[in-house]
Amino acid sequence: MSVANVVLHVADVHKRFGGLHALADIDLEVEEGQTHAIIGPNGAGKSTLLNVIIGKLAPTSGQVVFDGTVLTGRKPYQINQLGIARVFQTPEIFADLSVLHNVMIPALAKRDGAFKLNMMGSLAYEKKIREEAEHMLEDVGMLSSREDHAGSLSRGDKRRMELAMCLIQHPRLLLLDEPTAGMSRHDTNTTIELLKKIKSRGMTKVIIEHDMHVVFSLADKISVLAQGRIIADGTPDQVRGNPKVQEAYLGG
Ligand code: ADP
Ligand code: MG
């Protein structure tokens, strides 16, 4: 018997956009500490599923449960406060601010209101956050860019910065929507190494990915989505040999 702890449970989720059944019968269990990949061709419903999990979209039916708490019906910021952070397919950053400030903001946003009444406490807190942000930037290999304008970064660097913006929140669950989209092979490999490093710290991750190289390098478990349905799931080896998966990718 498995004693694995299911931290995220997507239960019988459907999502319709008018006549389009974008998600149908989605059941997904993500275990604590694992990297769970969701793959599938373009238009399969991957981003829709991620947006349902983070509360950006309401499912037409079904629900999402995180660590015993029903997420469905909660707002994205409330879901974020429960310990879920996400990296979007298109990075959401503050282009006019420095890289360092971008990374400090998610941590400062969590600041307890009481700090604002205590100037010295506030300054000490800001110093602590600055140090932590520098540490996160070092982790993602961007410390030397800390004073650069975020808007001037390359696409790969923006993604790395955004990852640091997530890590500083110390999430229990990190969701990544195509974290290597648009990156060169070199940047992709750097990002894979970085995600492996995060994995070794035991953070649970759901990664949505089109790039097979990334998925097979990282995932403990893979769910394959095609036309809004999960057509296969299992370990990378199980999924790789599945004829339905090959058909969805090659025949579709
Ligand atoms: P993927 O991320 O796998 O490429 P998406 O989840 O973005 O796929 O899209 C799944 C399907 O749902 C596509 O057919 C897409 O056109 C449609 N879709 C996504 N978002 C919306 C929306 N807000 N309104 C209507 N249709 C949408
Ligand atoms: Mg997508």
UniProtKB/TrEMBL annotation:
Keywords: ATP-binding, Nucleotide-binding, Transport. The keyword Transmembrane does not apply. It comes from the Bacteria. PROSITE patterns: ABC_TRANSPORTER_2. InterPro entries: AAA+_ATPase, ABC_AA/LPS_Transport, ABC_transporter-like_ATP-bd, BCA_ABC_TP_C, P-loop_NTPase. Residues 8-252 form the ABC transporter domain. The keyword Hydrolase does not apply. GO terms for molecular function: ATP binding; ATP hydrolysis activity. Gene3D superfamilies: P-loop containing nucleotide triphosphate hydrolases (3.40.50.300). GO terms for cellular component: plasma membrane. This is ABC transporter ATP-binding protein. It comes from Devosia litorisediminis.
